[in-house]
Write a structure and sequence with these properties.
heterodimer, A: mainly alpha, ABC transporter involved in vitamin B12 uptake, BtuC, two-stranded antiparallel ribbon, 2 strands, 1% strand, B: mainly alpha, 14 helices, Monosaccharide ABC transporter membrane protein (CUT2 family) (chain B), ABC_transp_permease (chain B), transmembrane transporter activity (chain B)
C-alpha cells in the first residue's frame, strides 16, 4: 500500500479537459446507460413510481455504504457490517417479542446494539494497532452473527406493530421516508467528509497515518468514532430491512458487506486510503442498485448477478490501477 | 533472577508450546465432562473431519505469510468440485487418480486468476478475493445449471476413497500427511520457500535483493488454488455429492485455524507446526462442543470469540517478546 504514488494537488488552474476526465463522469455515463437499458427492458420502469420502486429495492443497503466510504478513505475495511445488521435486528425482535419491551424502545435498543458492535470493532482496533482491520472484523463478523444465532436459533421473530412497517413502506406524498432519510444522511456525510476539518483529517490519516499522528491529529479517536458510526448506520439498515420484511432471522443481510464495499469502491474511493470523492460513491450506489433491479426485471438469476457484481467490483479497482489514465494526462503526470 | 526471566521468555516466545498447553488443558476438561472424547473412534473422527481444514490451512499460511488473504477458497472448492463431478458424470470411467489431477488443475487455474488479479492488476487481496468469491460461486451454479451431482452419478472408486484405508490409516489422513511433508520441506528448505518468508517480512528489502514479488504472489495464490482443488475432490468423495453451496464459509475456519496457530496477518510469521496445532484446536472445538452438550447454535459465537481472543493474545505475546528483545539489546 505504501508504494502507490501520490500527487498532492494544491489549487490548480481550472481546465475543462481535466474536469471531464474525472472518474465521476464515467460513472454518470454508466448510470445513464443502465437506465436506458432498464427502460428498454420494462415499459413500467421510466415513470416516477417505477423509479421509486427500483430505488427502494436497494436503498437500505446504501446506509452502510455511507460510513464504509469513510472507512475506505482511512485505508481500512469493515466486513462485519452485515453481521451487525443481523445482530441488531435480532435483538430488536427479541426485546419486543420475548421481553415485552415497547417497540419504540426496541428500536432504540437496535440502534444501541449496532453502535456497540461498531464500538467493539473500533475499540479492539485502536487498542491493538498492529492488528489488521480485516482480521478483527472477520472475527467480529463470525461473533456477531454467532450471537444472533445463539439468541434466536433457527427461529424467526416478527409480529411487529403496524407503525413499524411504515418505516420502510410509508411515504410523504410519493417519496418514501427511507429516501428522505437517505438524502439527508448522504448530504450530511458528504459535507462532513469534504467541507470540514474532520473530513480533511480523515483524508490525512488515510494518506499517511504516522504523519497525521505526529501533526497532532487524534488518529485513534477519529478511527474509533468512524467504526462506531459504521455500527450505528448498520443498525439503521437493520431497521429498514426488518421493517420491509416484517420479521427477522439470524441469517438476514447475508453478503451486504460485499455490496456496500462494491458501491464505495466503484465510486472511485481508493482501497489504499486517502483518495476519492463522496459524489462518486453516491452515484455508484444507484448504479449497482439499478443494475441489480434491471437484471432482476429480465429474470437474470441471482447466480449471474453474483458474477456481475463480483466482476464490477474487481474491474472498478483494477482499471484505475492499470494506469490507463497515462494516455490522457501525460502533462500532469508528475509522479513521485 | 536472570534465570527465571529467561524461562518465562522461553515459554512465551514459543507459541507452539503455549498452544500445546492450551490443547492439553482443553482436552482434559472435555474428557472430564464426557469420557468418550479421548476414545480411539472419536479421535479418529476428529482427525478425519479436520483433514480438509488442515490441508487448506497450509495454503492459507503461505498466503498470509506474504501479507495477503484469500477468502475465495470456499467458492474455488465448490467450483472445481462441481466441474470435476460434471466431467465424471458424463465420463464415469475416469480413474480416481485422474479426477484428483483434474481437480488440482482446475483449482490451480482459479488460484492463478486470483494471483494475476492481485499481482498484475494491483487489486488489494481482500477486494480481489471478495469479488472472485462471488464470481466462482456464481459460476458453480451456472455450470451445474442449479442442480447437484448426486451419489449415484459419481464413480464408486472415488466414493470409496474417503472411507478407504491404507496401512490401517484413513486415505484422507494420508493425503494430508503427504501434503504436510511436501510443504513443510518446501517452505523451510527450498529457495522459493525462503523467498516467500522474505516477501512477507519486508517487501521492499525482498524487491531490492532481486526477488520477483509478482511471481511469488502468483505462485502462492496458485498453490492455495491447487490445494483447494485437491480438497474439492476429497470433499465430493467424502460427501458423495457435489453441491453448489459446498464449502460456504470454510475460508473463515481456515483463516481462524491459521490465526490460532500463530500466523501473523501482517505477514512473515508462521510455521507449519503452528498451523497444525491451530487446526487441531479448531477441530476439537467443532468436535467437542456437541459432546459436552453445548447447543450447535452456540458454535459460531464461541468460534468468533476464540478467534478474537487468539489474535489479541498473539498481539500481547508479540509485544512482550519485542519488549524483552529490546531490553536484551539495551543491556
Amino acid at each position: 500500500m505504501g508504494k502507490t504514488k501520490r500527487v498532492i494537488t494544491t489549487a490548480q488552474e481550472f481546465s475543462w479537459k481535466k474536469f471531464f476526465l474525472q472518474w465521476e463522469w464515467l460513472l454518470v455515463l454508466l448510470f445513464i446507460g443502465i437506465n436506458i437499458m432498464n427502460a428498454n427492458l420494462s415499459p413500467y420502469y421510466m415513470n416516477s413510481s417505477g423509479l421509486l420502486t427500483a430505488t427502494s429495492s436497494f436503498l437500505e443497503k446504501a446506509f452502510i455504504a455511507l460510513p464504509m466510504a469513510y472507512i475506505l478513505v482511512l485505508g481500512e475495511i469493515d466486513i462485519s457490517v452485515a453481521s451487525t445488521v443481523a445482530l441488531s435486528s435480532v435483538i430488536m425482535g427479541v426485546s419486543y417479542n420475548n421481553l415485552g419491551i415497547p417497540m419504540e424502545i426496541a428500536v432504540l435498543i437496535c440502534l444501541a446494539t449496532g453502535t456497540l458492535c461498531g464500538f467493539i470493532n473500533g475499540f479492539i482496533l485502536t487498542k491493538f494497532k498492529e492488528l489488521a482491520p480485516m482480521i478483527v472484523t472477520l472475527g467480529t463478523m463470525i461473533l456477531f452473527r454467532g450471537i444472533a444465532t445463539m439468541i434466536l436459533k433457527d427461529q424467526a421473530s416478527g409480529n411487529f406493530p403496524m407503525w413499524f412497517s411504515e418505516i420502510y413502506w410509508g411515504s410523504i406524498g410519493n417519496i418514501p421516508y427511507m429516501l428522505i432519510a437517505f438524502i439527508v444522511l448522504a448530504v450530511a456525510f458528504g459535507v462532513v467528509l469534504h467541507k470540514t476539518t474532520f473530513g480533511r483529517r480523515v483524508f490525512a490519516i488515510g494518506s499517511n497515518g504516522i504523519a497525521s499522528r505526529y501533526s497532532g491529529i487524534q488518529v485513534d479517536k477519529i478511527r474509533l468514532l468512524i467504526y462506531t458510526l459504521t455500527g450505528t448506520m448498520s443498525a439503521v439498515t437493520a431497521l429498514f430491512l426488518t421493517s420491509r420484511m416484517g420479521s427477522t432471522r439470524p441469517n438476514i443481510a447475508q453478503g451486504y458487506e460485499m455490496d456496500a464495499i462494491a458501491m464505495v469502491v466503484l465510486g472511485g474511493i481508493s482501497t489504499s486510503g486517502g483518495k476519492g470523492r463522496f459524489v462518486g460513491a453516491i452515484i455508484s450506489i444507484f448504479i449497482i442498485g439499478f443494475l441489480r433491479y434491471g437484471l432482476g426485471l429480465v429474470n437474470v438469476s441471482s447466480q449471474v448477478m453474483l458474477i456481475v457484481i463480483g466482476t464490477l467490483l474487481i474491474c472498478a479497482v483494477m482499471i484505475p490501477n492499470l494506469n490507463l489514465g497515462r494516455f490522457f494526462k501525460k502533462k500532469t503526470a508528475k509522479t513521485a | 533472577m536472570e534465570k527465571k526471566s529467561f524461562d518465562i521468555k522461553k515459554l512465551t516466545s514459543s507459541r507452539e508450546m503455549s498452544l500445546v498447553l492450551i490443547l492439553i488443558v482443553l482436552s482434559l476438561f472435555i474428557q472430564l465432562r464426557n469420557s468418550s472424547f479421548l476414545s480411539i473412534t472419536n479421535i479418529n473422527d476428529l482427525i478425519t473431519n479436520a483433514v480438509m481444514l488442515s490441508i487448506l490451512a497450509v495454503g492459507m499460511m503461505f498466503v498470509l505469510l506474504i501479507g495477503g488473504i484469500d477468502i475465495s477458497i470456499g467458492s474455488t472448492i465448490a467450483f472445481s468440485g462441481m466441474a470435476v463431478a460434471l466431467i465424471l458424470r458424463s465420463n464415469p470411467g475416469i480413474p480416481t487418480i485422474l479426477s484428483f489431477i483434474l481437480g488440482i488443475i482446475i483449482g490451480t487455474l482459479c488460484g492463478l486468476l486470483v494471483g494475476l488479479i492481485i499481482a498484475k492488476g494491483k487489486v488489494i487481496p481482500i477486494i480481489a478475493t471478495l469479488g472472485l468469491m462471488n464470481i466462482f460461486r456464481g459460476a458453480t451454479y451456472l455450470i451445474a445449471d442449479n442442480q447437484w451431482v448426486a451419489a449415484y452419478q459419481l464413480p464408486e472408486g472415488l466414493k470409496a476413497f474417503a472411507t478407504g484405508k491404507f496401512l490401517g490409516i484413513n486415505n484422507m489422513i494420508i493425503v494430508a500427511i503427504v501434503v504436510y511433508i511436501i510443504f513443510a520441506y518446501f517452505i523451510k528448505y527450498t529457495r522459493t520457500g525462503r523467498k516467500i518468508y522474505a516477501v512477507g517480512s519486508n517487501v521492499d528489502a525482498a524487491k531490492v535483493s532481486g526477488i520477483n514479488i509478482d511471481r511469488i504472489k502468483i505462485l502462492v495464490y496458485s498453490i492455495m488454488g491447487g490445494l483447494s482443488g485437491l480438497v474439492s475432490i476429497l470433499w465430493i468423495s467424502k460427501y458423495a455429492s457435489a453441491q453448489g453451496d459446498a464449502a460456504t464459509g470454510i475460508e473463515m475456519d481456515v483463516i481462524a485455524a491459521c490465526v490460532i496457530g500463530g500466523v501473523s496477518l501482517n505477514g512473515g510469521k508462521g510455521t507449519v507446526l503452528g498451523v497444525i496445532l491451530g487446526t487441531v484446536t479448531l477441530g476439537i472445538l467443532n468436535n467437542a462442543l456437541p459432546l459436552i452438550n453445548i447447543s450447535p447454535f452456540w458454535q459460531d459465537a464461541i468460534k468468533g470469540l476464540v478467534i478474537i481472543a487468539a489474535i489479541i493474545i498473539n498481539t500481547i505475546t508479540q509485544r512482550t517478546m519485542d519488549r524483552n528483545n529490546l531490553k536484551r539489546r539495551e543491556i
